[in-house]
Amino acid sequence: RQPLDGSPRQPVEETLPAYRSPDGSLRIERSGGVARLTRLSDGAQWEVATGGSFPAVSPDGTRLLWQVVYGETVPGTPEPGVRAWVSGLDGSSPRLAYSGGGRVQWLDDHRLLISRRVTYTAETRLYLVDLDAARPEPVLLGEYTNLRDVQVAPGGGTIAFYLPFQENPADSGVYVQRTTPGSLARKLPFFGAYRWRDDRWLYTLSFDASQDAHALGLADALT
């Protein structure tokens, strides 16, 4: 606690930062090898053994996803092994959803997005995993050079990302792509920062070195 009059700050408790579920209804804290979830409406609490990882709540609030990393991330070396587990919101029926390298996140209520670097290259591959499929297997979405800042639109139907330092400089920029296998990435006609407003529109804060101000706008990711 930091008093606003400038007097010394005071410790309140020892804890790691808490996270919230997408709808804000749950507080998620980590304590040792378990995650503690608190439902804010009534104060109900429960713990889930996640190997010390923070779990991510699915967009519809019915599932948990957590990753256990086996090894250290060291530049210039192969990525450490990762196992991603999915369970019910209360930790029930945990199952291994993915095993390999990379980073795993929710795409929508039933799909995962996996970002995996190709060892010793600047290439990154994105995969989709449908948890409700008869045989959940990673399906390639695309391969990209110098992939940065992947952002998932609400609903998971589209992603936005940045591709700098392309072999052809004209290809560097911000792209959008539908999350269906076989879809193609499409470059947007601006350069700068971006954030999803909804499942179709991106807020854009474009940068032009010849101007003395940024331009705030909207980009239609579908057309």
Task: Give the neighbour order of strands across the main sheet.
Answer: 1-2-3-4
Compute the separation of the termini in Å. 49 Å
- Please give the share of residues in helix: under 10%
Structural class: mainly beta
**Spans of at least 5 consecutive residues with low confidence:** none
The topology string of helices and strands comes to EEEEEEEEEEEEEEEEEEE
Characterize the overall form.
globular
Q: Report Rg.
A: 20 Å
Number of strands: 19
Approximately how much beta-strand content do the residues carry?
A: over 45%
Characterize the main sheet: 4 strands, antiparallel
Mean pLDDT: 92
- Helical run tally: 0
Written overview of the protein:
The protein is an all-beta fold and 223 residues long. Helix content is 0%, strand content 47%. It has strands at 19-20, 26-31, 34-39, 45-49, 56-57, 63-70, 81-88, 95-100, 103-106, 111-117, 123-130, 139-145, 148-152, 158-163, 173-178, 186-187, 192-196, 201-206, 215-220. The chain is globular, with a radius of gyration of 20 Å. 22% of the residues are buried.
Keywords:
globular, 223 residues, mainly beta, four-stranded antiparallel sheet, 0% helix
Question: How are the SSEs ordered, and which strands pair?
Answer:
Blueprint: E1 19-20, E2 26-31, E3 34-39, E4 45-49, E5 56-57, E6 63-70, E7 81-88, E8 95-100, E9 103-106, E10 111-117, E11 123-130, E12 139-145, E13 148-152, E14 158-163, E15 173-178, E16 186-187, E17 192-196, E18 201-206, E19 215-220
Antiparallel strand pairs: 1-2, 2-3, 3-4, 5-6, 6-7, 7-8, 9-10, 10-11, 11-12, 13-14, 14-15, 15-16, 17-18, 18-19
